[in-house]
Amino acid sequence: MKYVAFLRGINVGGNNMIKMERLREIVAALGFGDVKTYVNSGNVIFETKKTPDKKLAASIHDVIKKEFGMDISVMVRSIDEIKEIIAKNPYEGQFENDKELHIFFLNEPLSTEHRELLMANNSDTELITLDERTIYYLPRMGILEGVLGKGFIDKKLKIPSTARNWRTVNKVSEM
Predict the structure, then answer these.
(1) What is the mean pLDDT of residues 80-94?
(2) What's the distance, Cα to Cα, between the start and end of the chain in Å?
């Protein structure tokens, strides 16, 4: 099966610097095949036998911690799950640039309380749709101005997550 590991906060603002070549090497050393990366922000595509996402994420997290001394959150999805996320896009045709729509990958499904807290921010200027461990987010004012761009998931919900723009999500699904 083919999977994608999304690493949180890699090579952003000069922090948590990891060379993609070395990242590919250490992920391949876990026994994963056909390891590729996309852009410099920690998107790792690989193949392995069918394995629970959390087990794959833990393996990658642990090897990064051992190799680089960094405690990096890792979210894993199968390519089939990524294709399903793309197919379910609730905002198709509502944005002009693929960098406007953001997908937040969560480590676990949101509780009812967390869902309610998050959806209280849904508005005409911040469109939010939830689907299991995925948040579709279309901020009309730009990601950094919106509530999710200001760290709402970290600060209020306190659950591991990472976001990718629509272009990146589509690109990794094709790799």
Answers:
(1) 96
(2) 13
Write the DSSP string, 140-168: TT-TTTSTTTTTHIIIII---EEEEEHHH
Task: Give the side-chain half-sphere CA count within 13 A for 9.
Answer: 12
Closest CA to 101 of 169, 9, 39: 169
Alpha-helical segments (H) within 11-104: 20-28, 53-68, 79-87
Lowest mean pLDDT among 5-14, 106-115, 165-174: 5-14
Q: What is the pLDDT of residue 165?
A: 95
pTM for this predicted structure? 0.93
- What domains are defined for the chain? 2-80 (3.30.70.1280), 84-174 (3.30.70.1260)
Reference 171, options 41, 29, 12, 21; nearest CA is 41
Mean pLDDT of the chain: 93
Residue 154, number of CB atoms within 10 A of its CB:
14
* Structural contact between residues 95 and 58, judged by C-beta atoms closer than 8 angstroms: no
Chain position carrying tokens 């948590």 = 16
